[in-house]
Amino acid sequence: MKTTLITPCTLGVALLAGSFCATASAEGFVEDSKASLMLRNQYFNRDYKDDGSKSQIREWAQAFIAQYSSGYTQGPLGFGLDAQGFLGVKLDSAPGRTGSNLLPIHDDGRAADEFSELGLTGRIRLSQTELRLGTHYPLLPVALAPATRLYPTTFRGGSLRSREIAGLNLEAGKFDRVNLRDSSDNEPMGVAAPNARFDRSARSNDFTYAGGTYQWSPALELRYFHARLEDIYRQDYAGFNHRLPLGPGALRSQFRYFDSREDGQARAGQVDNRNATLNLTYDLGGHSFGVAYQHMTGDTGMPYLMGADPDGLSEYLYSSDFVNPNEKVWQIRHDYDFAAIGIPGLSSWLRWVHGYDIELPASLGGGNRSETEKQVQLAYVVQSGPARGLAVRVRHSWYSNDFNNTAAFRDDRELRVLIDYKLDLL
């Protein structure tokens, strides 16, 4: 069993929070506490349809995620603590079909039977401003780490969030280590580098970000962030979300723009990318009809943190990230909420994504490459009874490209089954 070591930084967070509980009024700290246990089961099956060296990835695993979040101690300066314990257990795997990112892989090519970790986050609050120290689970445009496997990628460091001005949410943070979703180890950070975009061996101990979100009106939200992975890349993000009542439904508009370039010593090589995305969705009854376009320019693909996801059209895509050099992407999507016809809890999506004008190294296929992914998902959340809240999602995708079979992304068919059940303990 592989378990995260308690570092001096993590131990300091725990001791700090404990001392405040002992010396300050713990009434709010205890009374406002919440605790839960998440049971998460995932099955992953990817069949490759080319003549590459690996024909299949197939694994099945179970996770137990215990979460605790205290309230705040009494007084102008409030102290709190978050704790999260994770245990992942292998249910099925074999050396020839590892690589789902559900489980760590040992040097002999076998998946670990189990792995675990502990995350602690100390919180200090003054008025509407909060400082967090310890383990972070960022969901930011410049650091996006959703829970697409058993456990999300986490980062170690500190962050500050302020909501002192109505409608304005300011954020800043600094991370020095990453814990990948299929690992128990904190390690230096890097840039994701599929298809030889960047030097995957480059590492940094300093990722910083700052930015904010402003609610201009009930219908319009504006966002800006700046991020820097020291000596690797810098990135600026600007975007907006807008909702416009239109006819019997409503039109949602989302725009995102990223401008990325190398930083300092440029350890991962040149970074030169601009990425603009416009997503339009029309909501009508239980239907959501969407069309989106992504346009990239520059000499490289879009950089994003190793272990994280790019915040663009590739969110929740399975087989590719669709941010290769010079890539242009179209997406058509349909979502349906079956509550509109009297079946609450049941939902579906259909999605088609096509990227073209891709520039790859000659060894991977060269220029004018293309890729396509098609997806279908059916999901149900139990609405009542003893199993209330049990969520089941079945996802199937078809992916194809005209890259060489040595590229990071290969033709495949993929099936995922995800089951989540959360038990509230406090």
TrEMBL record:
A GO cellular-component term linked to this record: membrane
Gene3D superfamilies referenced in this protein's UniProt entry, alphabetically: Porin
Any Pfam family the entry gives: OprD
A Gene Ontology molecular function term of the record: porin activity
InterPro entries in UniProt: OM_porin_bac, Porin_dom_sf
Source species, domain of life: Bacteria
UniProt KW keywords: Signal, Transport
Keyword Metal-binding attached: no
Family stated for the protein in its record: Belongs to the outer membrane porin (Opr) (TC 1.B.25) family.
Protein name: Outer membrane porin, OprD family
